[in-house]
Amino acid sequence: MLNKMTVKDIDCRGKRVLCRVDFNVPLDTEGRISDDNRIVAALPTIRYILDQGGRLILTSHLGRPKGQPKAEFSLKPVADHLAMLLSKPVIMAPDCIGSKVEQLAQALEDGQVMLLENVRFHPGETTNDPQFSSQLAGLAEIYVNDAFGTAHRAHSSTVGVAQLITPAVAGFLIEKEIRYLGQAVTEPVRPLVAIIGGAKVSDKLPAIENLLDKVDTLLIGGGMAYTFLRAQGFTLGTSLVEEDRIDLASTLLKHAADQGVRLVLPQDHVAAAEFSAEADHQVCSNSNFPDNRMGLDIGPQTIAEYCQIVSESGTVLWNGPMGVFEFPSFAKGTFAIAQALADSKAVSIIGGGDSVAAANKSGLADRMTHISTGGGASLEFLEGKELPGISALNDKL
Ligand code: AMP
To answer: Which of 296, 319, 361 should be mutated for ligand 1, with most atoms under 8 A from CB?
Structure first.
């Protein structure tokens, strides 16, 4: 599926390997890592390179320091955590470029690992500055990209460096992400069902457009459903409607009908008096929606219908929650979908930060086939876009 070289295709014994990982982990108020999923997801590639005798130099960003060193965005806590996971020391570099870092890189021995300081402490990273790229590239003889979460960004550490170091290859995480996401859209076990939710239809329109000629069924939920329902002529109180997208929603409804795709919209909703966790709420259907309420979750009939469709599917791609799942009163729809996916035999692939968070919160994450580590990257993949961080790698011979 991935037509790029991977770490399996190279010999890294005795070589300095610069590996871009996505260690952009959440930290709590005391600077402790509150979720280490992204670090754990990079371990297979890290362990493989070290076991092969590579001299590993890891690079990542953390947060948005906006091109300046800021202590709260230091990767030091990640180095400590990684050392614990690997049961071996991880050298923490004081920066990601410069003479001190070059010396540390040169001094690495086979099987040793060093983590560079936050690559976004330099403005050249996000502008893909050639000089910054060449300083980073100068550290190593081999480049590995395993940061799926930033593969949609053309930055120095994802694209610039890949163009300067040969070989430039993919790590196991990128390979796995492309395998699952790619298979789901090119050769899925059918029927292929996409469940698209989240707040704004404008964010997801390109993905919906691209998926329409691939899926058998498209289930829409979350705030974005209201723009589609408005396009069908329903009035939905104060629910989130993007007026300037109603025409586009109509066009998509027509495309779906023309292509024989079953596009399903919610028939009922949990409608609240206001946008708050404690808001008074009731179930309303499309045709009896009060003027002074807003839909914050899909209703019980819609849940039953969507779960039934999931139970009959071969592959399900899920991106975006069905309601304001951060508020327990409006989380039922989202968690019911997570449960239906966990119970079904379908290949289940979850992408998008919030649906991943919901799957994790539901405690059902390990019953899904694949949970993508890249929200933006997986959405761009579903939009049919090329991911620059992957395009820049060397083609398989
Ligand atoms: P997105 O980032 O586009 O996937 O959207 C996720 C956000 O959509 C979550 O924070 C949800 O609270 C929000 N959301 C889901 N359903 C609704 C709704 N009916 N009205 C307003 N916001 C919603």
So the answer is: 296
